[in-house]
Amino acid sequence: MLAAKTIILKMDCPDPDRLDRTVWTYTEGMNYVSAVVHNLGKPKGSAALQKIVYSALREKIGLKSQMSFNVVRQVTGTYRTLQEQVRAKKTVWQQIMYAPTSMTFSFGRDFSLDGDDIGLTTLNGRRKYRFFRYPHMEQYLDGTWKFGASKLVKHLDGTYYFHLCCERETETREVTKSSTFMGVDLGQNFLAVTSTTDRKCRFFCGGKAKDLRNVYSTMRKRLPSKGTRSAKRMLKHLSGRERRLMTDMNHRVSKEIVSFAVQNNVDVIGLEDLSGIGDRTKISKRRRYTHHSWAFFELQTFIEYKAREKGISTIYLDPAYTSQTCPRCNHISKNNRNGRSFVCECCGHSLHADLIGAQNIESRARTYRYTLEVQGCSQPPIRELSTR
């Protein structure tokens, strides 16, 4: 199985103006290609689109050859995603505008690594920039990881960071040959609850995420009433700070979950397929912010790539009725659950509701293993990950 990781390298740029000009020109190229695709009314393949826009990107805008290829691939991918959302009736066909905050590089073509230096192709030729090395990133620079398409990102303070994407093959046990499973139930009272095949369980981050969101929600409600420019700046600052704190919390929780799986010799982690949950569920106005700010997809992504590095597979399962089903007698009823408590109205089995959900997910993971075996499959399809 392919394990992927994005390493964020802080760069030392004595000539940021050179990079600024390159990023601005690259963005101008993306906006030009975006306008072309928008006028076509539908996305085209990168090879066909390349023939239409290549000469303009090179001669009029002034991009290098590899930059032009990267622009076309990036815009093509964005509009394919937009087309899928249009088909799902989540949005309408529209022109996408890009901001000059990042650009893509291809390893071996327009960027390279040499010791503490990154070689980047700019509009003025190849330039080397030093990056700061930290102990935690040494394992990814020892030659065992392969580098792929990466991004140069400009932060709000003007500092440049290089998001280095690397990957390598890891050995994981086939799902059909696995014997120990773990279910992970995600929630808002507890960020995650886990249960293994031998009924070992653990609760993670009880109420901290919910409290954090409530604190920042209260602060945002108070600031707009002032209407001053400083209040607006503070709103923007709070938004970024809350997002960073939640991402850090998800990183720490996902690391603890995978460590718990390793300690209990888990072969497969079962996760809920929560895609589209925002459209399927009706939430009261009072709880709407808490629900929509729930970063479950980010947490699942972190769990998945950290598990891959440890040789543990992840599968996504139908979450329907996991908190209403009794794991002892399989009786399903809304009356089984009352808040955080679960009491089966049929057999009387009682337990914490989130733990019941984790046990049912683990049970479905085992059932999925036998289904794959009957169908003659060894591995389920792998969900695409968005790197961070």
From TrEMBL:
<protein>
    <submittedName>
        <fullName>IS200/IS605 family element transposase accessory protein TnpB</fullName>
    </submittedName>
</protein>
<dbReference type="Pfam" id="PF01385">
    <property type="entry name" value="OrfB_IS605"/>
</dbReference>
<dbReference type="InterPro" id="IPR051399">
    <property type="entry name" value="RNA-guided_DNA_endo/Transpos"/>
</dbReference>
<dbReference type="GO" id="GO:0032196">
    <property type="term" value="P:transposition"/>
</dbReference>
<comment type="similarity">
    <text>In the C-terminal section; belongs to the transposase 35 family.</text>
</comment>
<comment type="similarity">
    <text>In the N-terminal section; belongs to the transposase 2 family.</text>
</comment>
<dbReference type="GO" id="GO:0006310">
    <property type="term" value="P:DNA recombination"/>
</dbReference>
<dbReference type="InterPro" id="IPR001959">
    <property type="entry name" value="Transposase"/>
</dbReference>
<keyword id="KW-0815">Transposition</keyword>
<dbReference type="GO" id="GO:0003677">
    <property type="term" value="F:DNA binding"/>
</dbReference>
<feature type="domain" description="Cas12f1-like TNB">
    <location>
        <begin position="296"/>
        <end position="361"/>
    </location>
</feature>
<feature type="domain" description="Probable transposase IS891/IS1136/IS1341">
    <location>
        <begin position="163"/>
        <end position="275"/>
    </location>
</feature>
<dbReference type="InterPro" id="IPR010095">
    <property type="entry name" value="Cas12f1-like_TNB"/>
</dbReference>
<keyword id="KW-0238">DNA-binding</keyword>
<keyword id="KW-0233">DNA recombination</keyword>
<dbReference type="Pfam" id="PF07282">
    <property type="entry name" value="Cas12f1-like_TNB"/>
</dbReference>
